[in-house]
TrEMBL record:
<dbReference type="Pfam" id="PF13649">
    <property type="entry name" value="Methyltransf_25"/>
</dbReference>
<keyword id="KW-0489">Methyltransferase</keyword>
<protein>
    <submittedName>
        <fullName>Class I SAM-dependent methyltransferase</fullName>
    </submittedName>
</protein>
<dbReference type="InterPro" id="IPR029063">
    <property type="entry name" value="SAM-dependent_MTases_sf"/>
</dbReference>
<dbReference type="InterPro" id="IPR041698">
    <property type="entry name" value="Methyltransf_25"/>
</dbReference>
<dbReference type="GO" id="GO:0032259">
    <property type="term" value="P:methylation"/>
</dbReference>
<feature type="region of interest" description="Disordered">
    <location>
        <begin position="1"/>
        <end position="38"/>
    </location>
</feature>
<feature type="domain" description="Methyltransferase">
    <location>
        <begin position="46"/>
        <end position="133"/>
    </location>
</feature>
<keyword id="KW-0808">Transferase</keyword>
<dbReference type="GO" id="GO:0008168">
    <property type="term" value="F:methyltransferase activity"/>
</dbReference>
């Protein structure tokens, strides 16, 4: 990680009031695709990590049973809480949690994250994906800055001094190692994509379904 969790939190606290006005078209498209692929059932519990001002959490709340937003920036989550109140959404809550320590131990059906995991080093991303797998979701939808081709530091999606995007290959390997199968890859830009990971059925489950 090029900055500590606290440094990232301070940075986003400062950006929070203007954050929603500064997103790129690709960021918006990524959010749309994350929401579309997450597609929760009415009783589902969704955990959205790096929830920020709640773009994903608030969009999913009307279709889900409960949505838990986790972030390190109270300033960003205050914006999310205010939007939830304005929209009259009562099944969404926001609180402190990191990718590697989401601070949630209930049942989880779907995990989402949009434009946030690229703040972690590749090793930390691998650990985070393993932690998320341990939460037990059937689906994990990750939208983020990621490299389909060679990194281009001049593209507007990341700052090399603070961000650390991974290659799609590394993310795909991390998902597989954590027990997920990639079921969709959406390439929005050479450096922005959405990956949909579903829990890979275990041998026991496959055997049982054969009986
Ligand atoms: C670019 S914003 C994206 C917010 C939102 N998901 C969206 O699509 O608009 C990234 C968010 O990730 C959060 N973040 C950064 N590092 C994090 C970490 N290690 N764990 C949890 N959240 C983190 C930041 O505080 C920030 O709110």
């Amino acid at each position: 990680m090029k900055k500590t969790v606290d440094e990232h939190a301070d940075r986003f606290d400062d950006h929070a009031p203007d954050y929603d006005d500064e997103k790129t078209e690709e960021h918006h498209r990524s959010a749309e695709l994350v929401v579309e692929h997450a597609s929760p059932e009415p009783d589902d519990v969704v955990v959205d990590i790096g929830t920020g001002t709640g773009a994903i959490a608030l969009a999913l709340a009307p279709d889900a049973g409960r949505v838990i937003g986790r972030d390190i920036s109270e300033g960003m989550m205050d914006e999310a809480r205010s939007k939830a109140a304005d929209a009259g959404l009562e099944n969404v809550e926001f609180g402190y949690g990191t990718f590697r320590e989401p601070e949630y131990d209930g049942d989880v059906d779907v995990v989402t994250s949009n434009f946030a995991m690229h703040h972690l080093s590749d090793e930390a991303k691998r650990e985070a994906i393993a932690v998320i797998a341990d939460l037990g979701p059937r689906t994990f939808v990750l939208g983020d800055v990621m490299f389909f081709d060679e990194p281009d530091p001049d593209a507007p999606f990341y700052s090399p001094d603070v961000d650390d995007p991974a290659t799609v290959g590394l993310l795909a390997d991390a998902f597989t190692d954590a027990g997920f199968s990639l079921t969709a890859v959406e390439r929005i830009h050479d450096q922005v994509g959405v990956l949909v990971a579903e829990r890979t059925p275990t041998a026991d489950v496959e055997d049982a379904s054969d009986e």
